[in-house]
Design brief:
Blueprint: H1 7-36, H2 64-68, H3 83-102, H4 106-128, H5 133-149, H6 154-183, H7 190-200, H8 205-225, H9 243-266
Helix pairs in contact: 1-3, 1-4, 3-4, 4-5, 4-9, 5-6, 5-7, 6-7, 7-9, 8-9
Length: 269
Amino acid sequence: MLLYMTPAFKAYIFILTFVLGTVLGSFTNCMAWRIAHGEDFVHGHSHCTACGHQLGAKDLVPVFSWLFQKGKCRYCGEKISVRYPLTELITGIAFVLVLFRYDISLNTIQYLILVIILLAISLIDLDIAIIPDRFILAGIIDYVVFAVLGGGNIIKNILTGVFNGLVIAVPLIIIVLIMDKILKKESMGGGDIKLFFMVSMYFNWKYSLFMVLLSCIIGIVFTLIFSNIKANDEDNPMAFPFGPSIAASAVISLIVAEPIINLYLGLFF
């Protein structure tokens, strides 16, 4: 559909998508922080996490508010984490890339919702080293709803997703149980395995393997760059939150897994 639009209107659609991404990224960041700190994210107004002052409209403009206020709260002067504008920017870029990859389609809407779910999981995991089951369930529901909306053999579509998830999750469970015995400590959290199951529902086994490999690479880079971030696990003090690496690899795989795998297989067949 985008192919048949004028360049000006196409640019407008992409800009609108980017803005939507930054706004939803800002909302998700706020929601994740409230959940991680035991606050009600449905009711109440946004407030400074340092002084508690209620934020006004001009404090909540994605990216620009942080820039104009030089990364500080204009009420108490406390520094505002760079995580906020970065999250908004990354979400906006992810939205644009998904639209570019899948055009205006049901798949695009489904994957944009998945991006937000994965963002929430990542932020909460970073804060409290927990992946809430409600977000795993939300990702499964997202898959099921669009499996129904997509038409065709609905039962087959849903069962295919479940099978794709199990193809990755079951071997992982076996490997983790073996590693737990060898290391005598938890090698991977149950939330991470559930997350792998959920995101693998969206891929076939080849793309899922690509995603798992990519998550390991991202995880290694993540621990090297952010070595101060730990999972707050008393039994395993060296553990780190793996959810963000899985989430990032899933989003990247949505965009590049198919062309990269096809290019690789094309070298042999």
